[in-house]
Amino acid sequence: MAERSGGRPTGLRRPAVGRRRFRSLRARTTLGAVVVVLAALLVGAAAFVVVLRLVLLDGVRTSAESGLDQAAARVEADGVGAVRGYEDVLVQVVDDDGSVIAHGDDADPPALPTADESRWSHDGERWLLVAGDVDLPGGGDVTLVYGVSLEQTDAAVGAAVVLLAVGVPALVLVMGLVTWGVTGRSLRPVERMRNEVEGIRAARQDARVEVPDSGDEIARLAGTMNAMLDRLDRAAEGQRRFVSDASHELRSPIATIRQHAEVAAAHPERTEVAELADVVRSEALRLQDLVAALLELSRLDEGGTGQRRPVDLDDLAFDAVARARVRAGTRSGPDGVVHVDGSGIGPARALGNERVLAGVVRNLVDNAVRHAETRVVVALADDGGRAVLTVDDDGPGVPPGERDRVFERFVRLDEARSRDAGGAGLGLAIVRDAVRAHGGEVAVTESPLGGARFVVRLALGG
After folding, report:
1. Cross-strand partners of 135
2. What DSSP letter does each residue of 426-459 carry, written as one string?
3. pLDDT at 306 over 70
4. pLDDT over 70 (residue 208)
5. Cα–Cα distance between 238 and 408 in angstroms, integer?
6. Do 205 and 236 contact (CB within 8 A), yes or no?
């Protein structure tokens, strides 16, 4: 446990202000630009100084070699005395044993180095020396040494180093300030958008971010953010509507059960136990189906289709047809019953969750039986590498303007296809979400029978 000092645990540390400051994009961008530019300028400055020194030394070397050639010509013509009178340069004539035979005014002994090229320092001044053998007029040869001062070269290089030492930091500072300002100006719309988004609350869900007219990435970001807010607004509105409709649907069977229970409690002599049991059982089944549908939609919303494996869609279709025939026999059409035809079901397999896909087929067939007049036709076929399931009925059909809305949750259409016919308004929503979760698509069109045709397309698998 941290020790306490002044009522505050010493083990807790507050983040430093400077540390927080360098977490900002503006500071990191400026710091990165300064480091990169500084490194580039330092490398460039060092290379410039090296190249400048080499160029200046090459010029001094050329001057020294030219002076050596001229002095050698004079010595070959006039003898060693010809070197006397040379000023501001070093000229010496050295014999074989290293003794100075003659020298210029500024080249007093001792003897200078006689290598082909060398550097020599004296009294704080540096010289570039070149040497060569010279034939004397009377015979024999000597070594002639010629030196040129490096003072101007060193002064020029030193001046360049001073200018770079002052100019590079100044340039980096100016660049850092400009980067800081430009970055801040560029990020100002982002900060404004952040404040605007932060100010959006539940009471102001229609508020949107102002899109600048710059046409750059910031403007596109604002447009994308507004599109995201629109999607979130639509999702929130759909969620509120879904919760409201679900609450209404749940209240309906509960209210029916409560009403009959209260009547039975108030007038037991007028209540048949069997009648009350039938009401409670039917409403409980309706409530059970509704809760199961809501749970299935919740799982699909979370992307949960469970483990996938090859599923025989024809088996699911035959099971749904057999189940529908039992249900269809209990209701009367104009000729007595609704006939469910499954003769068009062919073999097809899809990769998916068998329970979820069974619910898709069953909901479509039950929906068709619920709204058919006399006939329902179920077909399954392989069409170009995709399994195509079609369910036709001869009922009132779905108007073209409602064919997208029919798959939404708790959507009420006209009386002929309303939930009052027995459904809770969630079956087709489950179909759409389940098919999409399996990478397929579902649509409703006009049936050749005159009613509605629901078509499901799934990729074949296994």
Report:
1. 141
2. -HHHHHHHHHHHTT-EEEEEE-TTSSEEEEEEEE
3. no
4. yes
5. 10
6. yes
| Cα separation, 440 vs 457, whole angstroms | 6
Give the count of beta carbons closer than 10 Å to the beta carbon of residue 197. Answer: 15
Percent over 70 (pLDDT), the chain: 82
- Residues with Cβ within 8 Å of 282's Cβ and at least 6 positions away in sequence, in order, are none
Distance in angstroms (rounded) separating the CA atoms of residues 52 and 162:
14
Q: pLDDT tens for residues 372-384? A: 889 999 999 988 8
Please state which of the ranges 42-56, 170-184, 214-228 shows the lowest mean pLDDT: 214-228
The tokens of 49 are what? Answer: 């100084």
pLDDT at 223 (0 to 100): 83
Contact 282, 422 (CB under 8 A): no
Query: Residue 325 — pLDDT band, cuts 50, 70, 90?
Result: confident
| pTM higher than 0.85 | no
- Work out whether strand 441-446 and strand 452-459 pair parallel, antiparallel, or are unpaired: antiparallel
Burial class (CB in 10 A: 0-12, 13-18, 19+), 443: middle
pLDDT at 201 over 80: no
Q: Tell me what percent of the chain is helix, strand and coil, each rounded to the nearest 5.
A: 55, 20, 25
CA distance 352 to 363: 17
Q: Return all residues near 196 (Cβ < 8 A) that are at least 6 apart.
A: 207, 209, 210
Per-residue pLDDT tens for 417-437? 444 444 566 778 888 888 888
What is the average pLDDT value for the chain, to the nearest integer?
Answer: 82
Alpha-helix residue ranges (DSSP H) falling in 302-413 = 313-328, 354-371
Phi, psi angles (nearest 5°) of residue 459: -70, 140
Residue that has been written with the tokens 């006397």 in this structure: 84
Token pair for 229: 């807010």
Written as six digits, the tokens of 324 are 């529908």
Neighbours of 124 (CB within 10 A): 6
Residues sharing a CB contact under 8 Å with residue 458, sequence separation 6 or more, in sequence order: 313, 350, 352, 357, 386, 387, 389, 435, 438, 439, 440
Average pLDDT over residues 22-42: 89
State how far the Cα of 377 lies from the Cα of 367, in Å rounded to an integer: 12
